[in-house]
Design a protein that fits this description.
With about 210 residues, this protein is mainly alpha-helical. It contains ten helices and three strands; from the N terminus they run H-H-H-H-H-H-H-E-E-H-H-H-E. It has a three-stranded mixed sheet. A hairpin with a 2-residue loop joins strand 1 and strand 2. Pfam families: Rhomboid. It is found in: Membrane.
């Protein structure tokens, strides 16, 4: 598979390059980051561009490693159902949908900004979970079944978003995950029966397996 047909890898390379450039240019960082007042002034591209910049190396590595681990399987499904750009469209749509609730909540807050691909990466993770609920994921370096990871992830995101602490956009994580599942069901309704069948017949698989 070439770089241009492996859209997961293509997205990762673009994200890494743009993040590196933004770290070297505060002006570029400020232009790409999700900043509600700028969106209200017409810079709607920020709904997408914020997903291609990251706060630091660890933030970038975690998101891109996760995307690489689970993107291949999800990419195959969306490309088979929606055509060659299916996965790219899914990923970009997830970036937008995941940040919309944040925009509605923070649109009049000049002190708020957000960045990172977490909303779209969450969509990929939860799409993958529908396919392989018993595959092994890592929760703070502890291997756990994907379905357990999903429950813990949702519970933590809801709790953390309610606390309103820190700079991590937990709302985008949660909304992105929900979008990932709904989009997957929309293009492959049979995956619901597949998911419950898998759920009732546990078969533990390796990481990303």
């Amino acid at each position: 598979m070439s770089l241009f047909s492996n859209h997961t890898l293509f997205i990762i390379i673009i994200t890494v390059v743009v993040s590196l450039l933004a770290w070297q240019s505060p002006q570029l960082m400020q232009r790409l980051i999700f900043y509600p007042p700028a969106v209200q002034r017409g810079q709607v591209d920020r709904f997408v561009t914020h997903g291609f910049i990251h706060a630091d190396g660890m933030h970038l590595f975690f998101n891109m490693f996760t995307l690489y681990s689970f993107g291949q399987a999800v990419q195959g499904l969306f490309m088979s159902k929606l055509g060659s750009l299916g996965f790219v469209l899914f990923y970009l749509a997830a970036l937008v949908v995941a940040i919309v609730p944040t925009y509605l909540k923070q649109k009049n807050n000049p002190r708020y900004s957000s960045l990172g691909a977490s909303g779209a990466v969450s969509a990929v993770i939860f799409s993958y979970i529908l396919m392989n609920p018993w595959s092994t994921l890592l929760l703070f370096v502890i291997p756990v079944p994907a379905i357990v990871f999903a429950v813990a992830y949702v519970a933590y995101s809801v709790w953390a978003d309610g606390q309103g602490r820190g700079s991590i956009n937990h709302s985008a994580h949660l909304v992105g995950g929900i979008f990932g599942m709904l989009a997957t069901i929309a293009i492959e309704p049979g995956i619901v029966a597949h998911f419950f069948n898998q759920l009732m017949h546990p078969r533990f698989l390796g990481f990303g397996g």
